[in-house]
Amino acid sequence: MIINKQERNVTGNSMLSVIPIAGIFFKFLLFNAIWCYYTTFTPFSCWESYATAFVATLLLSLPYILIRHIAAGILVMAMLDIWMVANLMYYRTYFSAIPLSSYMLAGNLADFLPSVTTSLRWCDWLFPISTVVTVFLTFRICCRQKITFRFSRRIYVVLLISSCALLSINLSARGGLIAIYRTLKSSAHQHASGPPLYTLFGTLYFDYAEEFPELTEEQEREIHTWLSGRPSLVPVPEIEYRDNCILILAESLESWVLNLTVEN
């Protein structure tokens, strides 16, 4: 009887420690599933999507492992919920993850809050629901089995180092994350597969490290030649002249901006 009770306590300790970590990992899989629903489910057939999600889960679980309290896990999961839902809402409008430069412009959301709320979908509520379920299961096991928070930090460190090493070797053998991500963005079928394959953290790193090449003199000559070959704009005589202000908004421009001022 004593041996069985001890074995049950050891098993309960492992489950208690694994539940918040499994909840974080589930959020990455849920994000990938919703994201791929709008694009392609090809990332689910690639092992990188699971490996990067596993590494990100271990890194985000570090506060929970060090503090040994479920409050740290709840805070991490709540922040993940907000971040992932925000990126899904952004993708439904702009077909990309939130760029790194746009995080400083979050205050502008107050100007068009109704359009933001209309981007919400019922599946987005699965993120906070998964957090509630994770917390419920954690406290239920803790209260019923009267067990304490115990987790082998040695196993955590071994898993973290080994998974990071394998992922780093794979990325290095393929030319590095920047080159791989650049290839994905230029692909016709996988241009939006970056976040599911390399998580949102990889997307932010690519935005930070990617440097757009400057125009060469030959490219500038080609641009000027193309602009000079365009027919000149002349006003239509039948239209009455008026003093009107015409505002043209150019939004979501990519790297192909010419950085030139075109005047009539």
Count of discrete alpha- or pi-helical segments spanning 4 or more residues: 10
What's the rounded overall pLDDT mean? 79
Radius of gyration: 25 Å
Regions with little confidence, pLDDT below 50 for 5+ residues:
1-16
Share of helix, binned? 55-70%
Percent range for β-strand residues: under 5%
Oligomer: single chain
Distance between the termini: 91 Å
Total count of strands: 0
Supply the helix-strand structural class: mainly alpha
Shape: globular
* Largest sheet: number of strands, sense, barrel closure: none
Order of helices and strands: HHHHHHHHHH
Could you list some keywords that capture this structure?
264 residues, mainly alpha, 62% helix, globular, transmembrane helix, transferase, transferase activity, membrane
Structural summary, described in words:
- Keywords: Membrane, Transferase, Transmembrane, Transmembrane helix.
- This is Phosphoglycerol transferase and related proteins, alkaline phosphatase superfamily.
- With 264 residues, the protein is mostly helical.
- The protein has a domain at 18-100 and 113-210.
- The chain is 62% helix and 0% strand.
- It is built from 10 helices and no strands.
- The chain has helices at 2-38, 47-60, 62-67, 70-94, 113-117, 126-145, 153-173, 177-185, 194-209, 217-228.
- The termini are far apart.
